Amino acid sequence: MSKSFNETDCQILEEILRLRRDVRGNYFTDEPVSKALISHLIKAALYAPSVGYSQPWQFVVIRNESVKQQVYQSFKQANAVGSSLFLGDKKRDYKALKLEGILEAPVNIAIFYKPSKTPVLGQTSMKDMGRFSVVCAIQNLWLMARALNIGVGWVSIVDAQQVKQAVNADEDAELIGYLCIGYVKEFLDEPELKQKGWAEQKNSQDVVFFDSFPR
Amino acid sequence: MSKSFNETDCQILEEILRLRRDVRGNYFTDEPVSKALISHLIKAALYAPSVGYSQPWQFVVIRNESVKQQVYQSFKQANAVGSSLFLGDKKRDYKALKLEGILEAPVNIAIFYKPSKTPVLGQTSMKDMGRFSVVCAIQNLWLMARALNIGVGWVSIVDAQQVKQAVNADEDAELIGYLCIGYVKEFLDEPELKQKGWAEQKNSQDVVFFDSFPR
Fold first, then answer.
1. Across the interface, do A48 and B215 touch by the CB < 8 Å criterion?
2. Is there a contact between A147 and B186 if contact means CB atoms under 8 Å apart?
3. What are the φ/ψ torsions at residue A198 (nearest 5 degrees)?
4. d(CA B198, CA B196)
5. Which of A5, A30, A58, B208 has the most Cβ atoms closer than 10 angstroms to its Cβ?
6. Is the Cβ–Cβ distance between A138 and A179 less than 8 Å?
7. What is the DSSP string of A129-171?
8. The CATH number of the domain where A176 resides is what?
9. What 8-state DSSP symbol labels residue B33?
10. In which domain, by residue range, is B44 found?
């Protein structure tokens, strides 16, 4: 018989989902993160679904300061470009935000999608499915980290090509996510961008529809 | 103080991650799935991280037979194209697999990415980040479904444009995932494609690297 989960299990999962946060450098501590703990996180990632059981992921666990510095330089350049796209109050607010924790977090993990050279079952119509499998692995890792009371921040303000060079990735590998990982001073109760009024929470009736979008 | 999870919580999460399966039509039962249960799943999805707190997701909960039939016809066409890409034994094995549960599952959910018309914080360098946020929401939903002992199958062998037409989606909305949802006869112990020998499980040392890929 298949394992049947109970109401308590559901509640625990819901708490982990609800209290998972994106953690930036001002919340990480320098408490070391053990190899065993990183293995635990990657084990969780590897339980992810993958299209056609292709397991198209690659993880690079980074502690090396020089690699981190290269990625941090890439962030700085990309962030200058990013902030330039916002105007007025939004630019001011953007510049006041800490948006990464590359150097503060004891461990970084770069996660890549490695395309298959042969057709993948399930990826013949929707070509992004391999990338999406890698994202599912990242979300698994993130949730397990929260259950282990470890913070994770996903840094997307980088030049993917520069990150690939920093870790010597193959030309066909694609950066999907760059994670900063470490113990934290605290987990915020709510997303920081919500707390600070950067954007409001959407109403569920604005994003959930039945059978069809309104005609 | 932030909530601190304990070892039992971690073990429960790990079991949910490990025992989550992709469910196809031959495993769904016709036991009805309540509105409350679908709301519970969507609530879990909405706890997902989203780049710049953009919440760029749209969910269409489908019970209408005519909509399901349109999506099923799209699957049949796309699957004929997909199977034609495999040769010899692989083609035989492909054709023997049940790859969707569109009509068997009492509920389907189509999940879309709705791009922002203005710049999104964190999406200025990596343009796929909005899509990836939607995938995180799908993985949250999938895990909560497993905790509720509900099966989910992700159908990727469809023409996204045809699915959009079937639910009257805006032109700029992008289909990210199409899920079949229902109670199941059983959850397999392992991914079906692994059990049936379609592909082997990769060794973790082949996908995990330290500081850099080998030079």
1. no
2. no
3. -60, -40
4. 6
5. A58
6. yes
7. HHHHHHHHHHHHHHHHHHHTT-EEEEE--S-HHHHHHHTT--T
8. 3.40.109.10
9. -
10. 22-185
Alpha-carbon distance B182 to nearest alpha carbon in chain A (angstroms): 15
Q: Are A173 and A114 in contact (CB under 8 A)?
A: yes
Q: What is the pLDDT of residue B93?
A: 97
Residue A8 lies in a domain: no
Collapse the DSSP code of B180 into the 3-class scheme (helix H, G, I; strand E, B; otherwise coil) and give the result. Answer: strand
**Chain B residue with Cα closest to A213:** B168
Q: What does the alpha-carbon distance between residue A83 and residue B122 come to, in Å, rounded to a whole number? A: 10
Contacts of A53 in chain B (CB under 8 A): 191, 193-194, 198-199
| pLDDT tens per residue, range A22-72 | 999 999 999 999 999 999 999 999 999 999 999 999 999 999 999 999 999
CB within 8 Å: B215 and A168: yes
Instruction: Report the complex ipTM.
Output: 0.98
Both structure tokens of A173: 């590998």
Give the whole-angstrom CA distance, residue B48 versus residue A137.
14
Q: What is the value of pTM for the model shown?
A: 0.98
N-to-C CA span, chain B: 45
Mean pLDDT of B78-105: 97
**In terms of CA atoms, which chain A residue is nearest residue B210?**
A61
Closest CA to B163 of B94, B98, B97, B108: B108
What angle (nearest 5°) sits at the alpha carbon of residue B20, between those of residues B19 and B24? 120
Domain count, chain A: 1
Is residue B105 situated within a structural domain? yes
Angle between helices B129-147 and A7-19 (to 10 degrees): 160
Concatenated DSSP letters of A109-140: EEEEE---SS--TT-SS-TTHHHHHHHHHHHH
Residue B3 belongs to some domain of the structure: no
**A166 alpha-carbon distance from chain centroid:** 19
Q: Hey, of B124, B148, B186, which one would you mutate to test binding to chain A, going by the most A CBs within 10 A of its CB?
A: B124
> By CA distance, what is A71's nearest residue in B?
B211
Structure tokens at B40: 């519970």
3-state class (DSSP) for residue B113: strand
Specify which residues B107 forms β-bridges with.
B181
At residue A194, the pLDDT reads 98
Give me the pLDDT at residue A72, please: 98
- Residue A207 placed within a domain: no
Indicate the SS3 state at residue B208.
strand
Q: What is the DSSP letter of B203?
A: P
Contact assignment for B94 to A121 by CB distance below 8 Å: yes
